[in-house]
Amino acid sequence: MVLVNGVDTVHLSVQDRGLHYGDGVFETLAVRDGEPLCWARHMDRLRAGCQRLSMPCPDPNQLLGEARQVSQELAHAVLKLMVTRGVGGRGYRPPETASPTRVVVSYPWPDYPRASPLQGVHVRVCNTRLGRNPSLAGIKHLNRLEQVLARAEWTDPDIAEGLMLDTEDRVIEGTMSNVFMVRERCLLTPGLGSAGIPGIMRALIMETARSMGLEVTEASLSLADLGSADELFLCNSIFGVWPIRRLSGKPYAIGPLSLRMRQRLVAMGVISGPA
Amino acid sequence: MVLVNGVDTVHLSVQDRGLHYGDGVFETLAVRDGEPLCWARHMDRLRAGCQRLSMPCPDPNQLLGEARQVSQELAHAVLKLMVTRGVGGRGYRPPETASPTRVVVSYPWPDYPRASPLQGVHVRVCNTRLGRNPSLAGIKHLNRLEQVLARAEWTDPDIAEGLMLDTEDRVIEGTMSNVFMVRERCLLTPGLGSAGIPGIMRALIMETARSMGLEVTEASLSLADLGSADELFLCNSIFGVWPIRRLSGKPYAIGPLSLRMRQRLVAMGVISGPA
User: Fold this and answer.
1) A61: which of A159, A201, B130, B268 is 20 to 30 A away, CA to CA?
2) Catalytic residue set of B
3) Is the predicted pLDDT of residue A275 greater than 70, yes or no?
4) A23 closest CB neighbour out of B54, B136, B148
5) Quick one: CA dihedral A85, B239, B8, B20, positive or negative?
6) Minimum CA–CA partner of B107 in chain A
7) DSSP bridge partners of B45
8) CA dist list (Å): B31 to A41, B170, B197, B262, B270
9) What is the pLDDT of residue A185?
10) What does the domain layout of chain A look like in residue ranges?
């Protein structure tokens, strides 16, 4: 089901700035029993993104009503919210008073292998790089061609995700996930000041790890750094935590910390999906 | 008037990948007496962009028919063509057989000051930078948030354009134009291998300058380099050539080469707009 500005429709104005320029932001959430998970955190990021684009942010309560409307009676689903700067005339200049477009869509739960959270996944390194631009880094905006090109690099269903480096060979994130490495009981994850999106699950993991007494560091990480990891794992709001069993052919142990972290997040009720 | 896949409508599917990811390309052309200018060159760039995105390109003849349909009886107009990868499911991965969406729109001619081509324009330097990414550089794709943020930096109607630097302080282009400098009878313009879009007017100017016996070089240019110019000018397919009279407060001479170049392009019939 799709709601556009609260109306049940499959259409959008062809003059929407979301189409012309990717002038907007989005959120992807897990839905369990008709209710979106981690709603407040997603709304915080949506609001921050709108602010950085100097765009009005819709009322979170209105969005929540729409989210529930498209999610009702769904046991497990994926919810996507898009907020664009709305309809505009020709040219990059934003209208002085933008009237944002809200798009709220529910999708069936993806058919990820049930075993991935426990048995881990195979991951490759993408050739497509992430450009570095502090003006856009951290915003979950609609300019996603880098991810599209990276995801188009492989069709092998045994490869679950691709890691992306920036143009200076730093590991940043997966095409649809963030990445963590464990080394000597420290948790390390790439800093995202120049590229990448700070995931909601990433933040939850960092907080949880600290509450478990682990040291958590955002760092500049190379592929060689990842090679020295005791454990590697991916995370996002839909699949939760996936240990990396193999990266570019090199095997990694599915270590205790990845599994324990996932158990904690399941216990906190922030990971959805069929059991 | 708007045609979407040949149909007179103002709507697009809310599942179009152009909206979700900016997964597509566009062209902006001048129309004179119902006919788009430099059609073949724009089609070459469109085709090259589709190829780099591994996306089928619509038949140029079909697009020309649609372009003429939305432009008919218009003495002067702006034509925008968008080609997206079409409707897709959730996720970055492109569908194996994409069915592109064609959007063809005509707009009224913009109300640029009549005097700009002869008396020059004021230009600022934008704070928003262009990220560097060879995977996307040169493609006139729909990921245009950098330009939106740059164009939002000023509202002063006396400033006609903003120059954008990349993240390594190199001058790349204007938000909607390319830039040239003249120094000792040489024409210099930024190389666009890491960021920027090679404009159709830019290519015409480079070819014309060479045919006039001038040396033309693509170079890595800083703002300091621009400061040493005898003349500076901007170009695009709509306004043609605008000499820069003032850049960040520093005055420049409106030199003979900028004016002569414009006369040549007018004589070639590649610049439109009310006289």
Assistant:
1) A201
2) 28, 140, 173
3) no
4) B148
5) negative
6) A90
7) none
8) 48, 33, 21, 18, 10
9) 87
10) 2-108, 116-268
| Strands A178-183, A231-236: pairing kind | antiparallel
pLDDT band at A88 (very low <50, low <70, confident <90, very high): confident
Of A14, A54, A150, which has the smallest distance from its Cβ to B103's Cβ?
A14
Instruction: Decide if A250 is catalytic.
Output: no
The percentage of residues in chain A with a pLDDT greater than 70, rounded to a whole number, is 99
State which residues of chain B have pLDDT below 70. 273-275
Token pair of B102 as six digits = 């064609």
Question: Token pair for residue A271?
Answer: 């990971």
What pLDDT is attached to residue A272?
76
Of residues A26, A92, A167, nearest to B144 (C-beta): A92
**SS in 3 state form for chain A?**
CEEECCEECCEEECCEHHHHHCCEEEEEEEEECCEECCHHHHHHHHHHHHHHCCCCCCCHHHHHHHHHHHHCCCCEEEEEEEEECCECCCCCCCCCCCCCEEEEEEEECCCCCCCHHHHCEEEEECCCCECCCCCCCCCCECCCHHHHHHHCCCCCCCEEEEEEEECCCCEEEECCCEEEEEECCEEEEECCCCCCCCCHHHHHHHHHHHHCCCEEEEECCCHHHHHCCCEEEEEECCCEEEEEEEECCEECCCCHHHHHHHHHHHHHCCCCCCC
Residue with tokens 């179009």: B16
Q: Which CATH architecture has domain B116-268?
A: Alpha-Beta Barrel (3.20)
Please tell me the pTM assigned to this model: 0.97
What is the rounded distance in angstroms from the CA atom of residue A193 to the CA atom of residue A166?
12
d(CA A19, CA B24): 9
Nearest Cα of chain B lies from the Cα of A91 at a distance, in angstroms, of: 8
A250: closest CA of chain B, how far (Å)? 24
Does B175 sit within 8 Å of A145, measured CB to CB? Answer: no
Q: Do A14 and B94 touch (CB under 8 A)?
A: no
Distance between CA atoms of residues B179 and B252, nearest Å: 14
Distance from the B183 Cα atom to the nearest Cα atom in chain A, whole angstroms: 31
Provide the pairing of β-strand B101-108 with B121-125.
unpaired
From A27, A84, A101, A140, active-site residue: A140
Cβ distance A14 to B17 less than 8 Å, yes or no, reads no
Q: What is the mean pLDDT of residues A180-199?
A: 97
If you search the block for the tokens 């932001």, which residue do you land on? A25
pLDDT of residue A274: 65
Residues of chain A neighbouring B92 (CB-CB closer than 8 A): 144, 147-148, 150-152, 175-176
Euclidean distance between CA atoms B128 and B149, whole angstroms: 7
Mean pLDDT of chain A: 96
Q: What integer pLDDT is reported at residue B89 of this predicted model?
A: 79
Q: Within 10 Å of residue B275's Cβ, how many Cβ atoms?
A: 5
* Chain A closest-CA separation from residue B22 CA (Å): 5
Please indicate whether, in this complex, the C-beta atoms of B21 and A21 are within 8 angstroms of each other: no
Do A2-108 and A116-268 come out as alike in CATH topology? Answer: no
Q: pLDDT class for A90, splitting at 50, 70, 90?
A: confident
CATH number of A2-108: 3.30.470.10
